[in-house]
């Protein structure tokens, strides 16, 4: 029997992408009558938010049903876009363009409250909340609120116990990818954070900042 398409026209082989999506301010819950779906989808004004983006970007984009599936190709592992300045490769041209700004130093998005510049408008928006004190992302399990959506996502794992980032060298797992990266340096010995005043180097930027206070005399 030929498989049916669901209500928003996605193909059966694309269903796994839908289960990796999450949605903000949910008003409507639609149960798709499809043998390939076991869980309901949440849709508001046809906008879909990609779960994978929540930790990658401070302000993840919302997608329509049509372009959401085009976006999900980003998460298949295919990376056809090569940086001409280094060996890094990317799954989308948008990510490549963003990365190249690291090499060019381009920061076209300027904060009007201070002299900081940013490579993307989403990073500028998140930064501006340090001036306003705005914390629009509220945890539904406790009274904590956050200025960045990805910080809320990581925090919520305290309640769920989820630790999706597993070290390949030992049995430790972590709630955030950044914490895993820091941990992995205990295995590799990598110390990428170099003091500009002396020859000391550190595996974590927090340790470097603490060390630099010895040179500046700053007291936290």
From TrEMBL:
InterPro entries noted in UniProt: Znf_C2H2_sf, Znf_C2H2_type
Cellular component GO terms held in the UniProt record: chromatin; PcG protein complex; transcription regulator complex
Coarse class of the protein's main subcellular location: nucleus
Residues annotated as domain C2H2-type: 81-108, 109-136, 137-164, 165-192, 193-220
Subcellular location: Nucleus
Gene3D superfamilies: Classic Zinc Finger
Top-level taxon in the UniProt lineage: Eukaryota
Record's keyword terms, sorted: Metal-binding, Nucleus, Repeat, Zinc, Zinc-finger
UniProt key word Chaperone: no
GO molecular function terms listed in the Swiss-Prot or TrEMBL record: DNA-binding transcription factor activity, RNA polymerase II-specific; RNA polymerase II cis-regulatory region sequence-specific DNA binding; zinc ion binding
PANTHER family, alphabetized: TRANSCRIPTIONAL REPRESSOR PROTEIN YY (PTHR14003), ZINC FINGER PROTEIN 143 (PTHR14003:SF23)
Protein name: C2H2-type domain-containing protein
Organism for this UniProt entry: Meganyctiphanes norvegica
Upper lineage: Eukaryota, Metazoa, Ecdysozoa, Arthropoda, Crustacea
